[in-house]
Design brief:
Elements: H1 6-14, H2 25-34, E1 40-46, E2 54-61, E3 69-75, E4 93-95, E5 98-100, H3 108-118, E6 127-133, H4 144-153, E7 160-163, E8 175-177, E9 179-180, E10 182-191, E11 195-196, H5 207-218, E12 233-240, E13 248-249, E14 252-261, H6 267-280, E15 284-291, E16 294-295, H7 300-313, E17 318-320, H8 328-331, E18 337-339, E19 353-355, H9 356-374
Parallel strand pairs: 3-6, 3-7, 7-18, 8-17
Antiparallel strand pairs: 1-2, 2-6, 4-5, 5-19, 9-16, 10-14, 10-15, 11-13, 12-14
Length: about 375
């Protein structure tokens, strides 16, 4: 295969270790792929500790004045490979019909397909931008958000954006994501007065108050879902007292909850609801909102993507809002955004792998969508 094939491009990216936050080599490799295609590449380092610095890449190839503008978005950082791989996680290896390596599906494979697709699109077709972060798997505070600031400074405003997250479930093309639920984590606590268990009147045990608080929160029915979203859910994810002694009433009790919520709510409205309940039990709440819900309503954009998928695979894609969060939660503030990519069966797993044939098919789908969006 030529160096412009999605397989060759994916191998080059996988061979660059880039555990989140990604730095250095993988971005140099990405720049080397894009520069020959006529892209102006901006590489930045954004943010400070504790969640930075983060390396990012913004690349644009301008079309004729007044032409349409289409964007691809994704991330070059990967989760740690862990132990027990059959081959080295950062030495791409083909075994049978599969390409193995960390990031093969999430999401260096998809990014390789984006680059290969763009190589087939003439510059006069319109403007194309790639929005590539090195911090999607981590805190994500200085990744795509920082790239959006750089875009705003340069007047880069795509008409549509396709995020290459691995959305396919059983076979390539069976699902696209037209929205995502929001996410808020809320730290909870009750402060008490430490004392001897034999003298409870001289202490104030925070544990029963926390238990009552959590019972009320766990009993909440936030909603019944909507046409496009499943019901919002609140989960207790941690309970702790940290009391090393059996005969001491603790001075504090703490917990954490996580809420994934649909577009009937906002992070602020849920934070306010939980805070009121916490305070009613003599406690406190500290919300951390990591994303708001969004929906790109079915229409022209989803239709053109579905048409491309059907043409190349014969599969009718499901329009879904399931799963966790992605950087689409930020990009939806720039333009309509949809997620579509490879089969997600092995993402974040040992021996992550992509079907080599799927790389070729996804490249053709991405090329069709980009051409349709620029037309």
């Amino acid at each position: 295969m030529s160096d412009a094939s999605p397989l060759a491009l994916a191998q080059r990216l996988i061979a660059c270790p880039s555990v989140t936050p990604a730095t250095g080599g993988v971005f140099a490799e990405m720049e080397a792929m894009l520069a020959p295609l006529g892209f102006e590449v901006l590489r930045t380092v954004d943010g400070e500790a504790p969640d930075g610095p983060v390396e990012n890449l913004l690349a644009t190839r301008k079309g004729p004045e007044g032409s349409r503008h289409f964007a691809f978005a994704g991330h070059l950082d990967v989760v740690p490979p862990g132990e027990g791989w059959t081959s080295d996680a950062f030495e791409p290896e083909i075994r049978g019909d599969l390409l193995y390596g960390r990031g093969a599906v999430d999401m260096k494979g998809s990014i390789a397909c984006m680059v290969a697709a763009i190589a087939d699109i003439p510059a006069e077709a319109g403007t194309i931008t790639l929005i590539i972060t090195g911090d999607e798997e981590g805190p994500a505070r200085h990744g795509t958000l920082a790239l959006m600031d750089h875009m705003a400074e340069r007047g880069i405003v795509p008409d549509l954006c396709l995020v290459g997250e691995p959305t396919s479930v059983h076979r390539l093309g069976d699902m696209m994501k037209i929205g995502r639920r929001g996410s808020v984590n809320i730290f909870l606590g009750v402060d008490g007065v430490q004392g001897h268990v034999a003298y409870p009147h001289l202490a104030d045990n925070p544990a029963p108050k926390l238990v009552a608080m959590l019972a009320e929160l766990d009993a909440l029915v936030l909603d019944e879902g909507t046409d496009w979203f499943q019901p919002s859910n609140l989960e207790i994810t941690e309970i702790g007292i940290g009391n090393p002694a059996h005969n001491v009433i603790p001075a504090k009790a703490e917990a954490r909850i996580s809420i994934r919520f649909n577009d009937l709510h906002s992070g602020a409205s849920l934070s306010e609801k939980v805070t009121k309940i916490a305070e009613s039990h003599g406690g406190w709440a500290r919300p951390v909102i990591s994303g708001e819900p969004f929906l790109t309503a079915p229409g022209k954009f989803s239709d053109m993507l579905a048409d491309a998928i059907r043409t190349e695979t014969g599969v009718e894609p499901e329009l879904s809002t399931s799963g966790g969060t992605s950087d689409a939660r930020f990009l939806k503030n720039v333009c309509p955004v949809i997620e579509f990519g490879l089969n997600n069966a092995t993402m974040h797993k040992r021996d992550e792998a992509v079907a080599v044939a799927d790389l070729d098919v996804l490249t053709r789908i991405y090329a069709r969508v980009a051409k349709a969006a620029l037309a």
